[in-house]
Structure formats: structure tokens, C-alpha cells
Amino acid sequence: MRTTTLLENCHLFAGLEKKELANLAHATSVRRLSRGQMLFMEGDEATGFFVLLDGKVRIFKSSAEGREVIIRLAQSGEIFGEVAMFDGRQYPANCIAQADSVVLFCPRDAFLRLLAKSPAVGLKMIQALCSHLRIMSQLIDNLALKDVSARIAASLIERCRAGGGNIIKLDMTKSEWAKKLGTVGETLSRNLRKLSTAGVIRVERSAIRVLNPAALEMLARGEK
Fold first, then answer.
1. How far is 32 from 103, CA to CA, in rounded Å?
2. DSSP type of residue 90
3. Rounded Cα distance, 139 and 57, in Å
4. 64 pLDDT above the threshold of 80
5. Span 177-217, pLDDT tens digits
6. Looking at beta carbons, which pairs linking 36-39 to residues 24 or more positions away fall under 8 Å?
């Protein structure tokens, strides 16, 4: 598939004129990543941002002891790395491919030229930045103000709302889920067993069914 077609199918660039797409396509490049391959590391110079065309990537921070906190799991069609690109500094986190993935790299200079000509693209980028800001705000709130059980309850509630029901499909490993919550897999499993024993949830083969949403809401608020 041509780069111009890939750009047309991306929400950020939808609506651009053919000439603008052609100019942008000339400046961008497509990168293919194997599962487990690093795209960038914390401290690398941020020369541009990325659009995930296919697959899944994990954006995370890690400590010197090897502890990891997942900031975000980017899905197909999402942009990432744009904040560091705007301030011209380094990437503040690491990025690794969760699965075989295809990303589009957009250099900073080319994108800034596009912004000067197409304000609509700027508005879409602002929307994306605001969305990521909300995610970061929630992450800080969870890690700083809630204990592990409350974080797990809040995560279950969030995923129920996103799915529109009381059944949560397990689309990530427990290890990945634990890292996203700032804990470890053993602690996650222990808390899930407690919730199951209390009749709040039922862990099924490839899903979790919420049986008592009110109790889960109370736990997410820190009410035992």
C-alpha cells in the first residue's frame, strides 16, 4: 500500500488535499517492527512522532531495578511520541512492539510546515494531546492516591464502561495488566481471587464478569 493511501486512512491526516498528502508522504517513512523490538528508548532525541498503522506498541517507564509501569498500550490508528516532538526534547519513556507492527514516522520539521498550512490538522493534534493528558492525569491519580485493590477495581470499572457491559475480555496478559496498574502479577492475581471469593466478580476462561458493580464502585473509591 502506498504511503499516501496510508496517510489518507489516518484520522489525523484525513481531509488533506492530494498535494499536501503527497508532500507529507515524501517526508514520512514506514517502519516495520518485530514483536519485542524497541522503537525508541527514554532519552532518545525526539525528531518526530509516530502513527501506529498496524499492531500494538507498549509505552512504558522502567526503574534501575527493572520494575516497569505501562503508560499506554497504543492501538492501530493512534499517534504517539508527539509531546516530545513538539518541545524538541527527548522521548520521556520507552516504546516496544507488543506484536509485529507497522508504524509511520513523521519528522518534526515536515509536520510543523504542514501545521502552518493546515489548521485542521493542528486541531486534531490538540484533541489527541488532550486525550493523552487525561490518560496521564488518571494514571498519576491512580498511582499516587489509590492502593492496589482500588486501582484494580477502577480498572475493571473503566473497562466495563469501554465495553458497554459487565463482561471484560482479557486482551492482555496479567503481567501486562499488572504493569499498567503499577503492581506485579502475583498481587493482581491475589486481589482478583479476593474479589471472586467475595462474589464481586467471576473470573472466566478468557474474561472477567462483574457480578456486583456497586461493590466494585465502592472499592474503587477506597471504601472497604
1. 6
2. B
3. 18
4. no
5. 888 888 888 889 999 999 999 999 898 888 899 999 899 98
6. 36/96, 36/97, 37/96, 37/97, 38/94, 38/95, 38/96, 38/97, 39/95, 39/96, 39/97, 39/103
Distance CA 131, CA 120 (A): 17
Nearest to 181 by CA among 154, 208, 201, 206: 154
Contact 177, 155 (CB under 8 A): yes
In this structure, what C-alpha cell is assigned to residue 147? 492502593
- Backbone φ and ψ of 173, nearest 5°: -75, 160
Q: Which helix (H) or strand (E) holds 79?
A: strand 79-80
Question: pLDDT tens for residues 73-126?
Answer: 888 888 888 877 777 788 989 999 999 999 999 898 888 887 787 777 777 777
d(CA 45, CA 88) in angstroms, rounded, equals 8
- Mean per-residue pLDDT, 148-157: 87
Question: Whole-angstrom Cα distance, residue 150 to residue 133?
Answer: 21
Mean pLDDT of the chain: 83
- 105/53 Cα distance (integer angstroms): 10
Burial (Cβ within 10 Å: 0-12, 13-18, ≥19) of residue 172: middle
Give the rounded distance of the alpha carbon of 57 from its chain centre.
8
Buried b (16+ CB within 10 A) or exposed e, 23-44: bbbebbeeeebeeeeebbeeee
Contacts of 4 (CB under 8 A, 6+ apart): 18, 21, 22, 25
